[in-house]
Every structure is written in C-alpha cells, then in structure tokens.
Amino acid sequence: MPMIAIRHLRKEYEGNVALQNLHLEVPEGEVFGLIGPNGAGKTTLLRILATLLEPTYGTLRVGGFDVVEQPLKVHKLIGYMSDVFAVYENMLVWEYLDHFARCHGVDTRRRPQLVDEVLDLVSLAVRREAEIKSLSRGMRQRLCLAKTLIHEPKLLLLDEPASGMDPAGRIEFREMIKSLQAMGRTVVISSHILTEMADFCTSIGILEQGRLCISGRVGDILSQLQPGLQLEIELHSGHEPALNLLERHPHVQQLSQENGKIKCRWSAERSALPELHRLLVQSEIGLIALAVKEDNLEDIYMKISGHRTA
C-alpha cells in the first residue's frame, strides 16, 4: 500500500482550476520532491492532503485512509508545515513544543523526551529555555519543523520549509531530511528551488498549471529522458578537430560546445570510454580532461517544464 494514493484529483477556486485530473502515488519511505513554479498548485495539493481543503472531486488516501471521509485518522499520520506560520511569541521554546505534544495527545511521561529529541534533531537544544520572540526567522523555521515532528508522524508535508534559513541552516536541513528518511518517515516537500531538493529527494513530481507532468524515482526519470552518459571534454587546443572527430563517432550524440568545453551524450557502455579517451589522445588533440557528469533535477526540470503557472 502506498503512503499517498491520489486519483482524478481536481480543485477549483471560483472557476479557476488549481489542480486537474491529478494521479499520484508516493510509496512509504520516499522523500518526494514536489517541483514547479509559483502558482503551479503545490501548496493546494499539500493543503488537501493535510485535510485543510476539500477537493472538488477525486479520491485521496493517506496510509489507506480517505482524506475526506476519515480526516481524524489521517491527522494521526501526518505532520504539516505551512509556508506561512505563526508562533506564540511569549512562550519558551520547550513550552511551545510541549503544548503541541499535548494537543496531539502525546502521553505525559513521553513528552519531555520527545521535546528533547526534536530539539536535538533541529539543532535548537541550546535555545530550549529561550523565549520564542528572541529567535531569528531561521530559528523559528526550525522550531516550526520541530513542532511538525513532535507527535512522530509517519508522513511529513513540508511547504517551502527552508525558505527562511541561511546557507548553514539549509545544509543542516538537508541532513535532517536524510535522518528522517533513515527513521522510516515519508516526506513530501515542495519547492521551486531545485538546488534545495537535489541532494535528498529519492523521487519527484513536476507540477505545472495544475497538471502533473511526470513523477517517479529520480534515476528512472533520468534514464527515460536522457539515455546514455553525459560527457564533458576539456581541451587545451584542437577544438575543431575534436568536434569533427566526435561528430563522426557512432556513439556520440547531442554534441555541443559551452564555456570552452565540449559536451555530448555517450550511448555505449561506460567500459567503452577508455577507447574514446585513447582516440582523442592519438589524434593529437590537447585533451585536459574527459569527465562523466551526473544528470540532476535541473536537467529533468529544464527538459520537461514549460515554466507555466496555473
């Protein structure tokens, strides 16, 4: 059973269609990146999954429970972090977390330990006794993430969670997500900043104008869109002879030149690359480096997206 199963989802706002005929499955234990431009429908989808909005029609199940028909059972499974959130300024950090633990019905004997655990996870243990009004925006962002985790949800719905963090905070956030996946949590995280997602997403879905363009494991999508290896060749001299040689090679495709480097796709096996290296050297071309470059989320997005909003 997938953690999230969506069929024929549609959401309209006063005649405007935010989501249309959306089908999606997210297996348990995935870190699923919901990618798309502002206005694509990412926040709407997360709010529906969090039971804050009702779909116009369609079925949504979280952990096997219907989001519309069984919202209270869904609530026990999810932790939702909105892109816009408020905190109680005069509370202490630990009091804020303890308050939400009580709201979720966490046992009294378990609450102190959970508060300490989530504070350690989000690197706020040293601010345990601080008033919330003394925290920076990035610290408040981490506190809100801690609040989202306090009842140990199986599914996390995170809407632009790193938007207020400094570079060090973003690095820590990536490590937090990896830790949560290692604990067996399923994470759905939305962002329009691909560099935030590249290091930890195991699968992705690209939303555009309320439609899901593609979804699946990152490696599977890359192999569908970009068969073969991506090569980058750096030369000291001999660019024209190298281009002529590569154009005639049966396993070289999509040849281009960018920033003084030659780029192409290699359709043969990786084990055949030494032969290409020898060919370039024996042709007396000033070869500096021949490197295999990894495709990434930006490659996927630029290949698929038309950069359109709903």
Give an overview in words.
This protein is an alpha/beta fold and 310 residues long. The protein folds into two domains: 4-223, P-loop containing nucleotide triphosphate hydrolases (Rossmann fold, 3-Layer(aba) Sandwich), CATH 3.40.50.300; 227-294, Alpha-Beta Plaits (2-Layer Sandwich). 34% of the residues lie in helices and 30% in strands. The strands form three sheets. The chain has a six-stranded mixed β-sheet with strand order 6-7-8-3-9-10, sandwiched between helices. It has a four-stranded antiparallel β-sheet with strand order 2-1-4-5. Strands 12-13-11-14 form a four-stranded antiparallel β-sheet, covered by helices on one side. Strand 7, helix 6 and strand 8 (186-191) form a beta-alpha-beta unit. Helix 4 (111-121) packs across helix 5 (137-149). The mean pLDDT is 88.
Q: Helical region count?
A: 11
Oligomer: single chain
Share of helix, binned = 25-40%
Instruction: Please state roughly what percent of the residues sit in beta strands, choosing from under 5%, 5-15%, 15-25%, 25-35%, 35-45% or over 45%.
Output: 25-35%
